[in-house]
Amino acid sequence: MTFDPNCIFCLIVNGDAPAQKVHEDDDCLAFMDIMPQSDGHVLVIPKRHAAQIFDVTAEEAAKLIRVTHKVAAAVRTAMQPDGVMLAQLNGADAGQTVFHLHFHIVPRYAGKKLALHASEMADADTLKTHCEKIRAAL
Ligand code: AMP
Ligand code: ZN
Question: How many domains does the chain have?
Answer without folding.
Answer: 1
